[in-house]
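Issue 218. Parser rejects a valid record. Input:
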Amino acid sequence: MIYSGSLNKSSGNLAGDKRILYNPERLNINRDTNTNRGDIEMKKKNLRILAAMDGSDQALNAVRYISGVFPPERTEVVLFHVNPDVPESFLDLGKGDLGKDAVLHSTVENISSWSTHLKKEIDKFMERAHTILVEANFPPDTVKIKVQSRKVGIARDILKESGIDIAEGREILLTESQYSQVVLPKEANEKYDALVIGRTGMSKVHLVHMGSIANKLVGKTPHIPIAVVGGHPETGKVIIGFDGSEDAMRAVDCVGKLMSSPQREAMVCHVIRPLNIHMGIKRIFQPGEETRWAESKEKEIEPLLNEATKRLIDGGFSPDRVHKEIQTGKKSRAKGIITRAATGGYGTIAMGRQGLTKVEEFYIGRVSTKVLHMAKKMAVWIV
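Output the parser choked on:
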């Protein structure tokens, strides 16, 4: 069952609910209800986007996605590539081993030629990426090309460029309390507004599986929204998987800040699973109980959906292009969101990094993880 369109405001009965629902007072956020569209446009700051490039066709699709999502007149894009000095397969040998190994000694000269060829190929690739953006009306001086040699590792080098430095061998492990209280350096929050990377694809330049790099980055970027682009997604419609959590509201704010346009359509989608979902063929809860459960959950989420849609409109979306929807009876929240995106022509899915039920051992929530892995031909934002 699906409910969409205008939802009546309701205060909802959240007393005694220990889940971490969005609370504007706890976040100390002041909302100016008198802001007009002209003021919004004046207040919008310039954006800086980091695009991780690997030389693959999917990386070029990520660049095309950037060209269709972000406003050219106020966006700077840094096309960033980490260049290995030797083929990835040789890195397992350890530093300095190439010249010492009698068998491999004769290949050093060939590797030097390979490195020279690699640099020429990546230069051509970066120029192609630059051209895509310039032809999409990005001013040439706002599209930067940055190529550097591998320092620690491709993923860690990208992380450092994005604004957070992770020492070699150190992983980000955040408990629930640490995640909510983490304080990152100021430069980590201000260097870039988003990181965009291609989902999969074998790089033709130096045979690196960018899909594995993307997986590593998603779990280690609490300081910046990350978009993982699969296929060649449409850029005119974005759907936000919304569960009422603070991270879900951050995803709403991110969409409003980075993707707002009077021509773009946005939907806030909430999925309510049935009570009997884990009961197998045996029905424990009766239909009347299921109905009352769904109605109570709808009443609870309504004011948060209203707040989310208001934020999108305040951010610059046209009111007639902002929608909200509640889906009930779906066994999988992730599949419900992806199916709605596919049937509605939404090329972008935005999700909060963690939902209401945070689990300490996981970097991102279960629903966000499933959406990221299942939406292979879409752009998935983790905020």
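Fixed in the parser; the record now loads. The radius of gyration is 23 Å.
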